[in-house]
Structures are given as structure tokens and as C-alpha cells.
Amino acid sequence: MGSKILITGAAGFIGFHLSKYLLKRGDTIIGIDNMNDYYDVSLKEARLSRLNQHRNFLFKGLDLKHKDGINRLFKKQDIDRVVHLAAQAGVRYSLENPHAYVDSNLVGFMNILEGCRNARVTHLVFASSSSVYGANTNMPFSVHDNVDHPVSLYGATKKANELMAHTYAWLFNLPCTGLRFFTVYGPFGRPDMALFLFTKAILEDRPISLFNYGNMKRDFTYIDDIVEGIVRVVDKIPGPDPGWNSDNPDPGKSSAPYRIYNIGNHNPVDLKYFVEVLEGCLGKKAKKELLPIQPGDVPETYADVDDLIADVNFKPETPIEVGVERFVKWYKEFYST
User: Fold this and answer.
1) Taking the complete model, does pTM exceed 0.85, yes or no?
2) Residues recognised as catalytic
3) For 198-213, what is each residue's pLDDT tens digit?
4) Helix 67-76 × helix 108-119 angle, to 10°
5) Beta carbons of 217 and 270 less than 8 angstroms apart
């Protein structure tokens, strides 16, 4: 018998792939999503239609900020574990619509925490982001570094999620694990992410925008690696770290049942090389528009994954040459290009 796992954002990019994996291994999935129009809803519907083919998948159309609906869900369903992936995503969009981030990422997460506490959920795994590192330039980014200098509201809400989860772990002994994802890509990926935007533009003979004049590096992480990392963490319920020292507090650990991990490829890739790989897979050159760096962006991300390796024996390793080729194959098939 598998576990009954609640996945928020089940119609989203990561939620879809994670749900497929867990259903295949025999778990029962309760998926919730508000199906908002931040990007093309038809892509979310396509993901959801595939999940609905599984008899052990139950979908509920719910918005995280609706406290009563979330409370009813936790009371009705005997949920073992929760993987909280739903959020208002996007660094640049947080400059345009900041209130959406408060509603979803703060109020919504509060409702999930309360649901987990009242239902005595055995493990809450939640999505954080590499954006929490903000103005940090010490590479690679480590979970043991201080992250008190966000440069985007999105990053600030994700740091707030980590603090909120730690509080519930401390006060209510709710085991919580936060996962800082690094530039996730792959089939069924988000249309607002670089790989999707670049692929679409190149195929339509439109220029692609390279910010910071193309001088960017990202720790691109393939979706299958992200899912494998999540699953291993879900199955490892954290306990208090007896070695944690309150006189010299380690941000990555705690005397509460709480942990933080990076999930990244540990291999930052130059954006210009990333475009070269994509051009090779498409068999077509890109028209490039070089632009200044955007507010909230950082020039480089690079994940230290030593803790992930030590605790769950996993390190993402899919090279971009393989991952980008798989994405392009999916894109051409899905959109019949």
C-alpha cells in the first residue's frame, strides 16, 4: 500500500511530473490547483488530462488563499504527506503584480501549514527557490549561508515560507523540508521560462532577449532530476539535529524537525552556450537581442548539493545537451511544429 499524498499545484510543471512518478510507484495522489491564467491554461489542462487517466488520482480545483476550502480538504481526506508546489511564480512578474505573491505564497502557505498541523501530517515538503540567495555572490550557493538579502519580492516570499515552516516545525513538531529549486526545465515546462520562450521565438523567426547582454549563468536542472530529488526527500522525514548550536546557528539545520536542501545540477551553464545547444537541437540559428539585466535578476546561480548527497544519496546529473534535446522533441510533438 502506498501513501496518500497531497500535491498542491498538481497541474503545474513540477507537480505534473511528480504526480506521474508517485502514481506509478503506487501512491494515491490528491491534487489541487487553481488553474490560473498566469500562463496558457491549455497547457495545464493537458497535464491534468493525463493525470486524470489514473484511478488513484483525485483532483480538486482549489485556490490556496481560500482557507475554508483548504480546511475542508484536510478534514475530509486522510492525508499522510504533503508536497506543496503551488505558488505564484516568476521574478519579473512580482514587480507587476505583487499582491498575487502575498495571496498565494504567504496567505496560501499559511493555510497549508494550518491544514498540516491540524491533520497531523507526517511530513510537509515545500518548494523554495534559488531566488532566496538574492544578493549573495559566494559560490556555490550553500544552504548553510545566510539568505537575508532578497532582490525580488518572489525571493522574499520564498524565504518567508522557510521561516514560517521552521516556526511550525518548532512549535508543533511538524516535520518540514524546504527544497530550493534551480532553474527547472524539461518537457511540459512553463511557457514563461527561457527555454520555452527561446524555442518558440526561434521557430517563429523572432529575436530572443538575452539579458545582462547574455552574460548570465544558470544552474539548469532537468525535471527528472528534480522529481527524483523530491521523492527521496519526501521519504526521508527530518528529525531534530542534536548537533545544532544556538550560539552559532546553522541556517540549513535546526533543533526542530526541519531541513533545507538545494536541488540543482551543480554545474552553472553560460547562457550563450545554452542558446548554442538549443540552436543545434532546432537546426536553426537564433536572432539575438542583447538587453540590460532586469530588476530582480541575478547574473549567476550555482547550487551546492552536498547535503542532498549526504542525506538522500542523490545528485542531479542530466547534462543540458540531453535535457534540451528532450524538451525540443516534446515541444515539436506537442505543438505539431
Assistant:
1) yes
2) 154
3) 999 999 999 999 999 9
4) 30
5) yes
